[in-house]
Specification:
It is built from 4 helices and 2 strands, in the order E-E-H-H-H-H. It has helices at about 25-40, 45-65, 70-80, 80-130, and strands at about 1-5, 10. Helix 1 runs antiparallel to helix 2 (about 45-65) and helix 2 (about 45-65) packs antiparallel against helix 4 (about 80-130).
Length: about 130
Amino acid sequence: MTVCPSNPKASYHARSISLPSRPHPLIPEFDELLCRLRASEATISSSSISHKLSGLRDLHDCVDNLLLLPLNQQTLAQCRQEQWVNELLDGSLRLLDICGMAKDALLQTREGAHDLQSRIRRRRGTENAI
C-alpha cells in the first residue's frame, strides 16, 4: 500500500502495468524508413523520385505489417470502426497502386529520355562525319 505524499491519510494500491521492455522490431524499421524518406526530400531527379517511390512502398509495406500485428488487430476490432478501417485500408491500397503507376511512368520517361539522347548522339556523329 502506497501513501500519497500530499494527503498522508489517503492510501491506495499501486498497480503496475506490464509493458514490453523493447518495442516491436517493426517500430524501429518504420522509424528508419521514415527518416530515410524525409532525408531524401531535398533531391529532385528521375532516379531520386524512383528511389523515393520505392522507399514509400517499403514504408507502406511496413505500416501494413504493423497493422497486421495481433495486438493492433485486436485493438482495431474492439473499436468497432470497420468502415473507418476499411476506408483506411482501401486508401492505402490506392496509394500503393498510384505509387506503382508513378514508378512505371517514370521508368517509361527515363527510357524515352535515353532513346532521345542516343538519337541525338547518333545524329551529331553523322553530322560530324560529313
